[in-house]
Amino acid sequence: MTQLTTKKIVENIPKGSEKKGLLIFLLLIFMCAALILIPSINHNVSVGISAINSQSFKVSTNATQYGTIFDTLKYERSIHILAMLLVGFGFLMTFVRNHGYTSLTATFIVVSIAIPMYVVIKSFGGESFVKSTISIDTLIYAEFAAASLLIAIGAPLGRLKMDQYIIMGLLFIPAYIFNEWLLLDSGMFKGFLDTGGSIVIHAFGAYFGLGVVASTLSKFKNNPVCENTPNSNQFSLLGSMILWIFWPSFTSAIVAPERVVLTAINTIFALCGATLATYIFTKLIRGKIEIEDIANAALAGGVAIGSTCDMTTPGYAMLIGIAAGALSVIGYSIIAPKLEKVIRGTDTCGINNLHGMPGILGGLVAVFITGNVGVQLLAIFINVVIAFVCGRITGLFISLLGKKQETYNDKDEFFVEKLGA
Q: What's this model's pTM, rounded to 2 decimal places?
């Protein structure tokens, strides 16, 4: 009788329950590992943070003497960021079947628009606006603007003609510069924390792109849907891995020299947390691994850690990464279809899931460090509103240029001898 009862119980256990229990257990293990690295628990981490703080005064008093060395080190990170922009973002967007030429060429073009346009605009204006043209800092800020623009074009990717990407870039950069000045330089949001650009770079680009989608993509209701292949997905994974590798240079590009190592370590731990959470949650929600989640949500930790990248510690950074990875997977699997109904269009690259929501998460986490709840929340709200409204206006201009005839396809604008399978 006991054996029969046991057999029934085993038969009634849902398939995969044992694996889900293991995944949840692994998640708890990773979170515990992060907690162990919090200064109040780990003496070594606490000592390391104290050493960094004690070095700040010594470094600042010798800033003039070591200025050239610091600029040289920043130059190296600026080249890493360029690798992210062209190779990382470029190949990440090649997941669309038969659209690789367009994705890579659009990446080349918008980066080539964003960097010089940013530098030119910032060469004029008042004291709190102008930036030196021959400056490594200005170059890095221009690369940040290019990154935000690449995020934005991910939303309508595959449904714009090449000249429409150009118009989008030309209209995006002035909007980005205005938002950057308003939140970071105008003095109206003193205490707002966003060192690595979770809000100003990632969230702004995401909601600008969604604004463009909301204004233009009703024209594409009856067009072919976005498709991918194993080959295109592998190229996308290559882009994701390149972004993963160089992300620490992105977040540490403009931080104080004594905080570069801390920032890099925090970023890596956040990326590790997001990658592990992505694996766990994609299996929990979908039952199997969705490669789109791995290629995208694994990067969400780098997005979310941006705001506090030089102010937190590895343990907290890993927790932020775990939360961001989980949120991103939920976005791709559950939220994305609902969002498409709201904006009446398709977010091709899922930029809301990778850059929008994790970016806002990073901005919200900063509240616990700054304590400036009102300022932080207002800045986030203003950022999203400016981005979406400017995106909608840009979408209206783009609509005047007609529509792409072969959506998600290279052949209407490129010489293509043989399309990939």
A: 0.89
